Amino acid sequence: xxxxxxxxxxxxxxxxxxxxxxxxxxxxxxxxxxxxxxxxxxxxxxxxxxxxxxxxxxxxxxxxxxxxxxxxxxxxxxxxxxxxxxxxxxxxxxxxxxxxxxxxxxxxxxxxxxxxxxxxxxxxxxxxxxxxxxxxxxxxxxxxxxxxxxxxxxxxxxxxxxxxxxxxxxxxxxxxxxxxxxxxxxxxxxxxxxxxxxxxxxxxxxxxxxxxxxxxxxxxxxxxxxxxxxxxxxxxxxxxxxxxxxxxxxxxxxxxxxxxxxxxxxxxxxxxxxxxxxxxxxxxxxxxxxxxxxxxxxxxxxxxxxxxxxxxxxxxxxxxxxxxxxxxxxxxxxxxxxxxxxxxxxxxxxxxxxxxxxxxxxx
Length: 363
Ligand code: MRU
Known about the structure:
The chain is α/β, with parallel strands linked by helices. The protein has 2 domains: 2-132, Up-down Bundle (Four Helix Bundle (Hemerythrin (Met), subunit A)); 140-360, Translation initiation factor eif-2b, domain 2 (Rossmann fold), CATH 3.40.50. It is built from 12 helices and 18 strands. The chain has helices spanning 41-49, 56-73, 78-89, 96-111, 118-154, 180-188, 205-216, 229-234, 260-269, 290-293, 302-305, 354-360, and strands at residues 2-3, 6-7, 11-12, 21-24, 35-38, 160-164, 193-198, 220-224, 240-243, 247-249, 254-257, 274-277, 283-284, 306-310, 315-319, 332-335, 342-345, 348-350. The protein has a 7-stranded mixed beta sheet with strand order 8-7-6-9-12-17-18. A 4-stranded mixed beta sheet has the order 13-10-11-16, covered by helices on one side. The longest helix has 37 residues, at 118-154. The protein starts with a strand and ends with a helix. Bound molecules: 5-S-methyl-1-O-phosphono-5-thio-D-ribulose. 5-S-methyl-1-O-phosphono-5-thio-D-ribulose is lined by residues 54-57, 95, 166, 168, 172-173, 178, 205, 244-246, 256-257, 331.
């Protein structure tokens, strides 16, 4: 997508600097656009763990490039490469794409462990995954566009209103996004669209990242406090909800940013379609029972206790909760498949249930 007229992606490789890759520092947006060159597998680990990058597909691609650096650091030792893989997997537990990105690199090394060519093969694998995620996102956009066109043609009002949660745009992927891809495509197709952006406490990925993305593409939007969506749905102000996913079980239960489930409940109560947009790389075919098996990341208390804001010249953290009050900070929740209208994937629209998902994935 474009930032001030220049095409950008969230992660890229520069052949002039062969033992590194580049990311946008998502902690600084929307106040400052800064690029970080990652030149060690340790920094790749930190980038994922401390959320310099975030969003399921981008976590996967970052992990694949992190594995490339791990191989470059020790190309001849499969043991040390495997140890690095186990280490990287611990960076963030919830998004299945982390394991997927790591496995993609390990698989090509296992095909033929030649030592001298390991580096090259690991890099090729990371670059290929990056390209695949771009293509998957664009196709999600195309399939989602068909749904948005139908919704728009059915209504008499002047604009289509979509509610989204967290950031599932190009920053969370490599380009286009998942939940935002259909919105970008609809905007390009001339459908007047307005997006209600949940601020997404505690880290405010909606308010800080989704709103920034939409503003850069010139798409009409309003940032809303997380508790507002239900009222908007009751008032008929939302035509559809579209969110992303960090891991979707084979049964179609969706693990996504905390607060997603409550939006799905409100959508069901108000007969508002609730779509989840995701690349098939986010479906965990081994997860049968999300409620029993999902590892829900718990993050640092300070994400809730403190808030970061812009003073006009720099960002500052201030405390908003008494030091004596304990906090609880789960990063994700689980939306049961029964609340999901459909999964928008790169292969098309899939029903959120096991037989449909199996058929869809040819399993
Ligand atoms: O904690 P984050 O910011 O990594 O969580 C991201 C989300 O929950 C996104 O909505 C999800 O990864 C889908 S991204 C395309």
